Amino acid sequence: MKAKVFSIKGEEIKDITLSDDVFGREVSEGSIYYAIRNELANRRVGTACTKTRSEVRGSGAKPWSQKGTGHARSGSKKSPVWVGGGTVFGPKPRDYSYTMPKKMKRAALKSILSLKAQNDSLVVVEDFSIESGKTKDLVGILKSLSIEGRSVVILKDDDEMVRRAGRNIPGLSILSYNRLNAHDLFYGKKIVVLETAAGNLNDFYGKGEAK
């Protein structure tokens, strides 16, 4: 498929060929759902912790005799039915992360790129860098491209200066072409892809994809 390449001033300068296997494939909604679910689970911090009756502070002595007091029988003040007692089946520290099949993850990322291309939410821009590392310089480029709100910039490599310039821009995610994540891509209103990064995506996720 063909796509237009824009300058950092927002002007059309040429056309580029994008791989149909990456940007023009049939969208798999199921793989997108499972990829986002997997990423959110892997981000989850399972540090919630409650104390059971064996861990709460208090005496283990029987509060009163089994019979003859008129009270309900009780064996310990640490019982869950007492105020200050232990918690029954409460959360404990755990790891929520799990591994997703690589082929399904790749299918999800390609589906999202295809979905954004179909919805005209994907913009290919000539390669640029922010030598100063200043946020205002990157804001100027995005403004020229009419990019606002929640968006993603896909780099051809790990450009530290662009990342530095973009980290103070609300709603902007900056990703390398080989380290994409489904959550940011799917929820980004606009996806800005550098020209070289577009070619790298063709090679990395295309039919001749790297192992």
TrEMBL record:
Keyword Phosphoprotein in record: no
Biological processes annotated in GO: translation
Cellular component terms (Gene Ontology): ribonucleoprotein complex; ribosome
Keyword vocabulary terms for this entry: Ribonucleoprotein, Ribosomal protein, RNA-binding, rRNA-binding
InterPro entries according to UniProt: Ribosomal_uL4, Ribosomal_uL4-like, Ribosomal_uL4_dom_sf
Chain positions covered by the region annotation Disordered: 53-85
Pfam families on file: Ribosomal_L4 (PF00573)
GO molecular function, one term: rRNA binding
Gene3D superfamilies membership: 3.40.1370.10
Homology family: Belongs to the universal ribosomal protein uL4 family.
Quaternary structure, from the entry: Part of the 50S ribosomal subunit.
Function: Forms part of the polypeptide exit tunnel.
Record's protein name: Large ribosomal subunit protein uL4
Organism per entry: Candidatus Thalassospirochaeta sargassi
High-level lineage: Bacteria, Pseudomonadati, Spirochaetota, Spirochaetia, Spirochaetales
